[in-house]
Amino acid sequence: MGWLYMQSLKGHAGPRQYLDAQFTFERPDATSKVLRSALVGSNVYYAAVEQLRVASGEREVWAAICLVRYNPRDREGYIFGYKNAEESMGPYECECPKSILDLLTPTDRPYAQQWRARCRAAAAARRARAAKPKPRAGQVIVFDEPLAFSDGRSFDRLEVVANPRSHGAVLFRAPGSGGLYRIANIKSRSYRLVEPPPT
């Protein structure tokens, strides 16, 4: 399905609430209800959607995934757009929170199984990054592989120094020089920290 754009959220407080309402309904043969949802990074909506078949009493909880674009100041007035998918389509997005994954009922659909496995692996990687110690001024950071910088130099060991312009932030100094470097997404890199020798 392609993108659907609109000029209002039709009375809903935000994109997540609007999409929750789209997956919640009652019909004579079935009911559908969002058990839990999340808007991750402001551009991907994930939901555990419960569907009950009236005749059979069958219950299924599956994952809905929607790409979201929300711009209340859009020049043309189309402030909200979304593109919906569901887990058995094998979507690329795999940052679904564990709290949503845990509500899903078992499935035999291969793409859905693969998507759930990718989401769980991504969640485990996020937990591992969050648990990693943050470099502190005075430490030495040692990378598993040399890190290349835009000035053409590479280092596998840098000193961690305080950033005088930002409270709590750090910079990295090349050994034997005054060159200072910034490293984006430091916790996504493989490193260990060495404490300075006692004085």
What does this structure look like?
- This protein is an alpha+beta fold and 199 residues long.
- It folds into two domains: 4-131, no CATH class; 140-194, no CATH class.
- Helices cover 17% and strands 37% of the residues.
- It has three helices and eleven strands.
- It has helices at 15-22, 98-101, 110-131, and strands at residues 4-6, 25-26, 30-40, 44-53, 59-70, 80-86, 140-148, 154-162, 170-173, 180-181, 191-194.
- A six-stranded antiparallel sheet has the order 1-6-5-4-3-2. Strands 10-9-8-7-11 form a five-stranded antiparallel sheet, with no helix packed on it.
- A hairpin with a 5-residue loop joins strand 4 (44-53) and strand 5 (59-70).
- The termini are far apart.
Structural class: alpha+beta
Numbering strands along the chain, what is their spatial order in the largest sheet? 1-6-5-4-3-2
Please provide the ordered H/E string of secondary-structure elements: EHEEEEEHHEEEEE
Largest sheet: 6 strands, antiparallel
Specify the helix fraction band. Answer: 10-25%
**What is the 3D form?**
elongated
Please give the count of helices: 3
Q: Round the mean pLDDT to the nearest integer and report it.
A: 91
Secondary-structure topology with pairs:
Layout: E1 4-6, H1 15-22, E2 25-26, E3 30-40, E4 44-53, E5 59-70, E6 80-86, H2 98-101, H3 110-131, E7 140-148, E8 154-162, E9 170-173, E10 180-181, E11 191-194
Antiparallel strand pairs: 1-6, 2-3, 3-4, 4-5, 5-6, 7-8, 7-11, 8-9, 9-10
